[in-house]
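Database export, one record per block. Field names are fixed; values are copied verbatim from the stored entry.
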Amino acid sequence: MENIAGASVSINKLFENISTVIKGKELQVNLLLTVLFAGGHILMEDNPGTGKTVMAKTLAKSISGSHGNSVFKRVQFTPDLLPMDLIGSNIFDEETKDFKFKKGPLFCNVLLADEINRASPKVQSALLECMAENQITVGENTYPLEQMFFTIATQNPIEMEGTYPLPTAQLDRFYMKINFGYADPDTELTIFKEYLGILNNLQTIHQVLSIDDVVTLQKQASEVFLHDSLIEAIRNIIQGTRENAHIALGASTRAGIIFIKCLKAYALVKGRDFVTENDIADITHPVLQHRLLFRSKDAKDNALSEILANELRRLSDLKPSFQKPTN
């Protein structure tokens, strides 16, 4: 890829900008950017107060749209939320004596669906079409969304009171599910000492990329080279989830395609124009874990890890060069 150096410069600018606010979360930021450049959506699960909402706001403020700020919308999901609160509704216009569609918050570039599992499954399902097809259908009319439409959903652990498990079809639309986690002790101490400066950084954060830049990086990510042996490895991992006795529901073909998109974008975030076996090791769990139904808690902790380890051993025995062949 001719522009890998330029892509790395742009991605590093975005990463460093986010890091002025989000401290000690290099892996989580890299995974967030991976999903952005893969053209997907991300689900972040963790306890309240770990920085999930701040992460979403920081990313949105770092990207400028055609009129300055990117169109960022935050929706607080609550039990009384209705689908029309997200999609919009037809409003009767007294002047024209006709109905006009008033767009809801889903018509944006970056959507923060905060505490998504506090709303009912009916409301959660309102996101399905826009996440899968980048459009919204209301009655007989279909409205396209922005070319760059990125959903960052946060949820509290489902064991917490007042939460609803996300439907399987909804989970499958998220390219990754990550745990944000608490900061390590040293980083947390830094945050406590510098919290006023960090909050000020959030308020005054610079816009370092445009939406057009993001779309260009998404195109570059799709062109990252993926060796045939790694495609076979992805196939083996996907099939392994279906054949494992400890997994009740394995990964779909769509999951495999999303896996490929994320691998290419992750390699780009790492500054490469080709995917390696280490990339597979890094993102298998965030891409696949939430798509599988396990038969027990022990299986959830171990089954996918065993499938991945077996495939990495096979790749190690092959010892191929994963770089794109030169003509």
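Remark 1: The chain has two domains: 17-202, 220-317.
Remark 2: The chain has a mean pLDDT of 86.
End of record.
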